[in-house]
Amino acid sequence: MSAPVPYMQRTRDWYLALGFDNPYVWAHNTQVPFTPLKKPVSETKLALITTASPFQPDKGDQGPGAPYNASAKFYEVYSGNVRQDHDLRISHVAIDRDHTSMEDSGTWFPLPALRAVEGRLFRSLTPRFHGLPTNRSQRHTLDVDAPEILKRCREDGAEAALFVPNCPVCHQSVTLVARHLEAAGIPTVIMGCARDVVEHAGAPRFLFSDFPLGNSAGKPHDPQSQAKTLALALATLDTVTGPGETVSNPQIWAENDDWKHDYSNPATRSAGEMAAHRAKAHADREIARQVREPAVRS
After folding, report:
1. Which domain of life is it from (predicted)?
2. Fewer CB within a 10 Å sphere, N or C end of the chain?
């Protein structure tokens, strides 16, 4: 199979093509904090941290195949009871809408899968899972979101944390927060699909699945794939002994790699398609500004 999608370069090229002339500067760290597990993962209390958003019925289409929905974003850390079922969506992020269905939340929110192996592959879940905002501001992620996630993990007695990102910036955000937790003594593992983003930002432990974005927890409608991906993430937490190690999921997404060429690639779109994307991107940015400013002020 071909090399992973170069998400940092694709994102830069895509946003330049949309008319945004200030390319995003991705977080880069060469020194990686690392905290070894104090006991086997089978005896460890685990926190789940997601970048998926709670469904908001009044915020427009957030269902399978929905276009990017800036109104459905969230800007503050939230938490949920792990003993309840939750409707989390990923319509607000730049996932691969052309090659994944957004139909099976098991591909981005593995809480049911975790409950199924609780007491067997790991000791127990913390009482709450936590939602981490997809924040382009690295300073806000580091100064506000990371300390809040650490605080809640400590309150819940977390002995390790599993992060599940979706879009490219999600992958950066979870890496920055995972580094913060590791520096504070909580081991972490990220299960994700954007290898270049995570490794560039300096993740302590990373399970890489070469799948389209939005499928960090396994293939849709494939419980076996999801179970194997989760088991491998937990094994990565258990077996990695030094900082900055990436473990590759051996599963293959498809017979060919056409999807890798298509993602956020202006060269594969017509002039008319790019004009439509450009108009929507600028409208979405204004919607996001209107949603974000009250959230930041509150």
Report:
1. Bacteria
2. C
